[in-house]
Amino acid sequence: MSAKTLYEKILEAHTVRELDDDGQLLLYIDRSILNEYTSPQAFSGLRDSQRQVRHPQTILLNVDHVNPTRPQRDALMTDSGGQLQVDYFRKNAADFGIELFDVLDPRQGIEHVVAHEQGLIMPGMVIAAGDSHTTTYGAFGALGFGIGTSEIEHLLATQTLVYQRLKTLRVNVSGELPYACSAKDIILALLEQISASGATGYAIEFTGETIGALSMEGRMTLCNMAVEAGARGALIAPDEKVYDYIRGKPQMPDGELWQLALRDWETLRSDPDAQFDKSLEIDCSDLMPKVSWGISPDQTCSIGGCVPDPAGEANLIKRQAIEKALRYMGLTPGTPLQHIQITHAFIGSCTNGRIEDLRAAAAVVAGRKIASHVRGIIVPGSSQVRRQAEQEGLAQIFADAGFEWRQSGCSMCLAMNEDVLAPGDRCASGTNRNFPGRQGAGARTHLMSPAMVAAAAVAGHLVDVRNFLSVGQ
Ligand SMILES: CC(C)[C@H](C(=O)O)[C@@H](O)C(=O)O
Ligand code: SF4
């Protein structure tokens, strides 16, 4: 029997049928989580063709993209388009018999936070959902990937998808993560190294001692943003940390079933001599906190650096990309990144809206105030994270520092609700995408870790978080 990668093992266990000799196959999907934004036409398609949902119990509908995150939560939308989407979502849940986490449900939150909180994600699963950051579940040793609306319809009707096998890329991460650096800095460093298309056509497997040492939250941040490098799948082999994290979650099996599952999950690792199509190494020993300066997550550098000078770039395409980014971002070549003033600070999203992220940010702002010209907003990744942060006293720390403490949702990660920046606003953001208009037309986004956002909020400009933490804290 030939040696296999983890990706190949998961794929093999879910292949219903090979469709051709070029890696196209019919893939069985274990679960799907759908949002109100990308699912409506899929349900309309089912209605038009009078089809039912094949396995409604494997699907979860969760409102996250358009709902308001005002502190006093009500179901009212200011946006009539959003209201229509949520109304239709509710109708679809009722008519097709699918569970719905509605806006006021205590389990509601961003789908990629809610899914694992509820114990819906198990090692070895294949999860396809109408959202590109479904790669997050790789942190659990599950293959997750985003699908388009017509694929959602196919999945709902058949529980399968026509899937093109990916090539495999092993990213081995070594070295102790330096003080104040986090998984966010690792993934931004990877993006800087391989570019936003560096993993297109690949499924990544992250390996190495640094990955083993990362918390589950850190692993999720890493796999979440793997899609920003083009990877339609990111995996980390499950270990004790995963089992401890998922054990006892609401929908997780227990007793004998759990024991059986554990035995199976222990086979979920790449064989020692398995062949990857490509491999690369990242050494974290001298990693520094990263910030993005451009309009793509790979336009990133260490906080000690300066805004790049397009004149220094020999490659014409890259030079033009830098010029375009600097125009949009309103930045001058050679400016030290730490001189860039901000107007907003945002912590949240499926990348960095989990409890550990909020703890890291609170450690920076505790006893401090955010700069008077900065509007700071914290949107917990889920209602559960919100409650936990309140119990731990983090919410109070943020409120005392001058942050707005919100309800959960995607919010200012992509500005589909009322949390929208104005043209020219500049936001230090713990999110994953800095595309033009992402947080509002003409608004500028700098991606960084939540601790770095917290430090920027206090300083009023981009800053090295290491200036704000005493060693050993
Ligand atoms: C709205 C949705 C399709 C989109 C995605 O797929 O990722 C969004 O969540 C995002 O982060 O840009
Ligand atoms: S939090 Fe942001 S990245 Fe995550 S699903 Fe919502 S919009 Fe997409």
TrEMBL record:
MF term (GO), any: 4 iron, 4 sulfur cluster binding
Residue ranges annotated for the Aconitase/3-isopropylmalate dehydratase large subunit alpha/beta/alpha domain, each copy included: 8-460
GO BP, sorted A to Z: L-leucine biosynthetic process
Sorted UniProt keywords: 4Fe-4S, Amino-acid biosynthesis, Branched-chain amino acid biosynthesis, Iron, Iron-sulfur, Leucine biosynthesis, Lyase, Metal-binding
Residues binding [4Fe-4S] cluster: 350, 410, 413
Gene3D superfamilies: Aconitase, domain 3
Entry's cofactor comment: Binds 1 [4Fe-4S] cluster per subunit.
Residues of the signal peptide: none
Catalysis: reaction(s): (2R,3S)-3-isopropylmalate = (2S)-2-isopropylmalate
Pfam families, per database record: Aconitase (PF00330)
Pathway: Amino-acid biosynthesis; L-leucine biosynthesis; L-leucine from 3-methyl-2-oxobutanoate: step 2/4
Record's keyword annotation contains Phosphoprotein: no
NCBIfam families associated with the record: leuC (TIGR00170), PRK05478.1 (NF004016), PRK12466.1 (NF009116)
Family: Belongs to the aconitase/IPM isomerase family. LeuC type 1 subfamily.
Subunit field text: Heterodimer of LeuC and LeuD.
Name by which UniProt lists this protein: 3-isopropylmalate dehydratase large subunit
Originating organism: Izhakiella australiensis
Gene: leuC
